[in-house]
Amino acid sequence: MSLKTDDVRNIAHLARLHIDEAGVDKYAADLSSILDLVDQMNQVDSQGVTPLANPLDATQRLRADEVTESDQRDKFQGIAPDVEQGFYRVPKVIE
Fold this sequence. Notes:
Elements: H1 5-14, H2 24-42, H3 73-78, E1 83-84, E2 87-88
Antiparallel strand pairs: 1-2
Helix pairs in contact: 1-2
């Protein structure tokens, strides 16, 4: 698909982008080559190809989901300036 300079100006206007008039021809050529590549990729038969989530065949080492620290809420709330029913009270910031 080949874009004309008027198409590039229209796209820039719709996207609210300022482009230099001197670069419109280069933008048209670059965008046209990108659209040609997309068209070429759309013509590839990808039936039966499973989607790839990650190009590397690696797995993440995950730690076990277990409690490693004791509950210290009372300790931390004991030094807090204002606590009510287990919650920290802070000044209102939105009126």
